[in-house]
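Quick one: co-fold with hypoxanthine.
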Amino acid sequence: MHDLLTLPKAELHLHIEGTLEPELVFALARRNRLTVPFADVEALRTAYRFDDLVSFLDLYYACMDVLRTEEDFADLVTDYARRAAAQGVRHVEMFFDPQAHTSRGIPLDVVMAGLTEGIRRASALHDLSAGLIACFLRDRPVEEAHSTLDALAGHVDSLLGIGLDSAEVGYPPSLFTEVYRDARQMGLRLVAHAGEEGPPSYVWEAIDELGVDRVDHGVRVMEDSALVQRLQSDRMPLTLCPLSNVRLRVLPDLSFHPMQAMLSAGLVVTVNSDDPAYFGGYAGDNFVALAEDLPLGQDDFVLMARNSFDASFIDDDRRRELM
Ligand code: HPA
Ligand code: ZN
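Sure, here it is.
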């Protein structure tokens, strides 16, 4: 087995709803007496092909309709945890999309109870710690993000922080400046997707207006040398997702990935899986794919794995255990 597959690592960019494998879609549909508009697992897996971020999001939101009960959310986490632990993931900070569930009638309490129970089971079964980051859907009204944050206030002890995801272009981070200010006052950590399909100006807004602790993706930052300089001097972590960028056609193939240039520029880069069920690989698979397609050395991978622990919001006791 490739040692990069099992190299100990933290995963900092993982949408738990994006770990929904076709087998689990069908199993949960059966349990909840729902019909899936695909003939079988293979037909659904074949549909996991995308032209861009929005074409992926259409299927991503459709599939998560099978998630109905606490037990469904708990099973989603334990299935992911088994796969991640087998690929060296020792700590994960998982995104979830509260509005994608509340908007279809699933109460936030059900989502939170299921996810936290899944984390409890996963950490009992594996050498894996985990935390939750609630993401706002940037393509829904800003007022809804405010009311979602109000609802999350009742669960603040179960959260590490907040993030921003969904369709990026046309929805700049600055729309959410007040939401982020309020979340900071609640003691939450702040991250945001920026510079995946959107321009470098969105990354400037994420750091200067939202005040993020990490930038999610940022694969386009190399287009702006002043931005690279700023990220380097701030030691701002970037959570890159190589296989996602290829599957969503942000890059023609992995040989175009700017990882080497980012490392040479002294950026704090990490390797993550984003939506592994949809994009063809978990965290370790992303390390292996980079090694196959880019002239990176073992030292680079060891550095990226160390960055993942350094850039995490892990507590001090667990950090000492892991590093
Ligand atoms: N980008 C934006 N939103 C998302 C993604 C992504 O890669 N995955 C799930 N929601
Ligand atoms: Zn993402």
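If it helps, The CA atoms of residues 176 and 217 lie 18 Å apart.
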